[in-house]
Amino acid sequence: MDSNLTVGGVQQLVETEGHFTNRHQPVLQAVLSDGERSIEVVISTLLSHLVKSEQIAEYTLIKVKTYQYNITDDNIHIVSISKIEILENNPGGVIGNPASVLDSDSAHKKDVKNGYHYFNVDDGDWDNESDKEDPLTWSLEEPSDFCDWTIEVTRIGRHGKAKDNLASSNKSQLQRYHVHKAILSVGPRRSEYFATLFRQDHLSEFSTNTSRINLEESAADVFPSVLDYIYSEKTVMFTSKNATAVRHLAHYFGVRLLWKFASVYIKGDFGLETAATYLSEALLYHDDKLVQASVDILAECIEEVSRRTLTKLPPSSFERIVTSPHLKCRSKKLSDIVLKYCQAQGESVDMPLLMKWTKYERMPSVSRKAALPLLKIAVSREEQAGVNLADTHNVLRTRCVEACVEEWKETLAKPLLALESRDKNISRILGCQSVEHRDLPKEIQVELLEKALCAAKIELDDVKAELLYREEQVEELSKNIRKPASAS
User: Fold this and answer.
1) Which of 91-95, 128-132, 136-140, 202-206 has the highest mean pLDDT?
2) What's the 3-state SS for 320-379?
């Protein structure tokens, strides 16, 4: 028996409970005994099923011989009862004067008859099945046995608003969990949050015995697993998708062991393949350390990360990666990655974001395949922003034009030559709109073609110079061959 269970302390507890349950209403009493001392406490909730089944009558004073209980600062919670003895009937009695039980241990032992006086049966007559009580459990629909608190969980979206019914698929926006205060607030798996809450009965929650909590989707999904963990010996089935949410709930509700288990799982599961998932969840729950670790590994190994994984990230997450000081990516490879992301995300990538991701220091050159599509995106974002960066040095637009001109045979000439192979009419070729660069603004098309012509001329001049040089070499070689022949 705990040293806190003094006679005075118990009397105060009994009187307090009697006050809150209304002294003049039928209330069950029990005597708890450890063999040497006995204490009288109100356990009406736990023993009410004995009254309903007519095993004992109201106002019956009983001794609980085998029981388990937990003690908080201001209450005693009976967890389970397996053996009782009826001591005496107390018709018309009320709570508030337990002195008959508490005055002295010796008087109590002298006056109270034991179970043999009432039952006169041996253990063989007892129905062993009655000892096997189902453990207390939380419930979603109707309250289960002895539930005395409700937790209302509302799913919220990424902007902190309740999700509408269509967006939340088939999952209910609001779910009610009927629980037991004694289970949530005591024991090695207890919730420090609820243990503290239940000691402050002046709070508004006590008017309805309800806690109302808003949770992100992933946290709302795993909330039942957290309740299972508190209620039983069950372990949570961790995955990359739920581990961060479980750790968040464990921290929020103060379930220390569960927080440690979640942290151990994350440490072992974290890697390049799971980093994007952890990044999204860590941002959701403001887990700064996990966010930084995820960004660092994705930035260092971005060329190895699947494009599909990257394109699923929100722009804010993608920005953290491509602007990270840990970024290790070749310039042309980065241009391919940025292009795929812009194509997947569409209008969510505006001009400021695009310029930030494609700074010259980060992306000095653009790949041949990405040049023309990126040029279209850059021009489109300029038009949306109402600016023209045609004459601006080193912006993305300029680098894309340079890459197109540098590879003019592939980006500009090859599509036209392909048309020529099918149709020799030059007018139709020039008017064909299926050529990729034709949907660019006319001035940019002209710029591309002019620079391509210049590049072609330079290349042609280089070829001419090379041919002239080779002709001179051939002529010199021929002279050298004829001289020995003349001498002979």
Assistant:
1) 202-206
2) HHHCCCCCCCCHHHHHHHHHHHHHHHHHHCCHHHHHHHCCCCCCCCCCHHHHHHHHHHHH
